[in-house]
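Handout, section B. The chain below has 336 residues.
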Amino acid sequence: MKRFSSMGKPALAALLFASVLAAVPGTGGALAQAFPGKLVKIVVPYTPGSLTDAAARGVAQRLSDGWGQPVIIENRPGAGTSMGAEYVAKAAADGYTLLFSDNGTYTINPHLFSKLAYSPVTDFAPITIVFRSLPVFALSNAVPARDFREFLAYARANPGKLSYATFGIGSFPHVATEQLKQMAGLDLVHVPYKGGAAAITDLIGGRVALLMASYGTFDQSEKAGRLKIIGAATEKRLAVRPDLPTVAESGVPGYSMSVWFGMVAPAGTPAPVLDRIHADVVKLLHDPGADGFNEKFMKPQSLELGGNSREEFASLIKAEYAHWGRLVKAIGAKLD
């Protein structure tokens, strides 16, 4: 019983229930077939209007259509996505409360906040990565730089005078830009927002200078001349924009980021329920229809489909948790 001591009561109860079910032939399949029997809630730790929120709503609608039950989005922003994550970690482990967020929630925040009330490794049951984004840096037109090299030169010549926006303290853009600051020797002022919409509005309005987000977030605004995409934060150039140099090519060798968005349930959720959710999410991701998630959301946003197995997702969280732990320690970042 010692190994259960760190689990919350809901997770422990669900784990014991699942163990009993496993001993009874045929109950696992029946449990999966009966799920869901009521409303399912997907918690998004960002404000409405963000990429995460929009994606979650697209997934929720299609799951609701397939399940014949309401699937709603509940936005719980705050404390660098920790408020929403903690809520799900402490929810009943029955599959009716899920978390949808980026990898910052699962692999970065635990190293930034010393008093988090959840562990991404032990308090969640991974389901799958829904998609991967293509992170890029966008620059306000108010900054007199045409590309990333010119931005670096201008920022170094004007230390402390440029600001960068993020989607909140501890969000992926926050830590990724802090790493850029360290690697490139920049002095930039952090301006955290509770979500993406306000940050993008202020970038376009010239109230902040820099923002990292998905390529699809900025594509149309750049075409309209409202901002400048100056560098890909990926290891290689983007297939959708091969003319855009990477940050590593542009004066910061070794810099690259991987951004993914995944779905988890509270730890202890019965495996048949997790398998049912996983199968149905993967199915909707690969729906080839004109009204499918891929055509309606993924392609317009220039995102890459997920759909890995539960085991693969769990291994990825553990590996990236260790990676970001080393990185945050090297940066010396703490948010409490």
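Note. The CA atoms of residues 188 and 308 lie 37 Å apart. Compare this with the example in section A.
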